[in-house]
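Quick illustration, no need to memorize.
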Amino acid sequence: MTSQSQLEYVDGFVIKPDVFYSPSYRVSPFRTDDIASNLLLPSSVDASAYLNQKFSGRDWCFTECGKEGIALALSALHLSPKDCVTILTTSGNSYISGCVTREIEKVCSWSRDFEHNTAVIFVNHEFGYPFRDLADLKRYGVPIIEDACHSYLANTPSGDMGLVGDFIVYSLPKVYPLQMGGILSFNPRYKIQSKVSVGGGLDLYLNKVLSYYWPSLSEAKDRRLANYYGLTKRFSRLGCYPRFDLLENDVPGVFLFSVPADTNLIAMKEYGWRHGIECSIFYGEEAFFIPIHQRLSDVDLDYFYTVFARFFLEN
């Protein structure tokens, strides 16, 4: 437990608060009071109707989470242990989440390069920055899985994200105030059976929450972009700058930024969590990410800046 002597009051914010009085900022817009408010939302299946339109010419289903969507796509391809999944990312960074690799390892091997036994291309649209040469991947003539778990609101400049791949996977808590749920859209020639049964409890719950928030997605996108520019301005004072150039139709899923050379990223992550900020390292680079979602206010952005400014001052 933090002793009172460690507490500091800086520009209106408490630094190093007692652990029981820390705030809670997550990459997801979900907040504790959404448990009650979501239950009280009116029943609706408008979201399913919209998704039928959005994925016209393709099939789709709700999933329990993004990982289930990946597992379903891999299963539908009937891969053998001798096959390889080639993983590509927007950044080309060597790091890829264990949530992805563990699902692939259940069925076959994976590589960051094209191998003689590459049977599938797995494209990670990283953090709201879609893969920059998506359409060009069709020339390889193998099935493509698009991972858009952090890129629900984004698209490629040509607007073809989700249209190039045989499958595209979304994680709903990354953009909605939800604790679980995903979407898998896929070519109709594949047969998919999700754990989320149509008309079942989770299906109805996801439908009503998505139906309620669907009309405000445009505002959510605008707010995330405003937060991106607000955080860019603040963190530039610390020598921290956005990792990616922002292209047309990019909508950041997190604020991903470079840090000064020799920054202790492990200590930075621990410091952020110590102050109630979900954050992590963009492994393989001198880069870091924090929340950017649409429910953050300018005061929240000021808090993020103040916390990490204090970290750099102390380190």
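The longest strand covers residues 118-124.
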